[in-house]
Amino acid sequence: MYFLLLGMLGLALKYFEIEPVSRLSWWLVMVPFGLAALWWVWADASGYTKRQEMKKMDDRRQKRLDKQRQSMGLPPKK
């Protein structure tokens, strides 16, 4: 995501000819987009994306269980 934001910033600076980015080659300005694509390929291939999604779901589940336990007057599990 950061590569994509960096690429968008570089693209805008190059398009509006703001120094020092306007002096850079278009290839150099477009590098963050390629890095973003490589990151997404790696994240999907390595299972990173799926692990993060599962972690987020587990955290939501645990918060829901803790809230239910608290409403019954029980201490939350550690």
Write the layout of secondary structure elements.
Blueprint: H1 2-15, H2 26-46, H3 48-71
Helix pairs in contact: 1-2
Give the ordered list of helices and strands: HHH
Please, what is the average pLDDT? Answer: 93
What is the number of helical segments per DSSP (H or I, 4+ residues)? 3
* Percent of sequence in beta strands: under 5%
Helix fraction, binned, reads: over 70%
Structural class: mainly alpha
Uncertain regions spanning at least 5 consecutive residues: none
Describe the fold and architecture.
With 78 residues, the chain is an all-alpha fold. The protein has helices spanning 2-15, 26-46, 48-71. The chain is elongated. It starts with a helix and ends in a 7-residue tail after the last helix. The model has no long low-confidence stretch (mean pLDDT 93).
List keywords for this structure.
78 residues; mainly alpha; 2 domains; 0% strand; elongated
Q: Short description, anyone?
A:
With 78 residues, the chain is mostly helical. The chain is 76% helix and 0% strand. The chain has 2 domains: 1-46, no CATH class; 47-78.
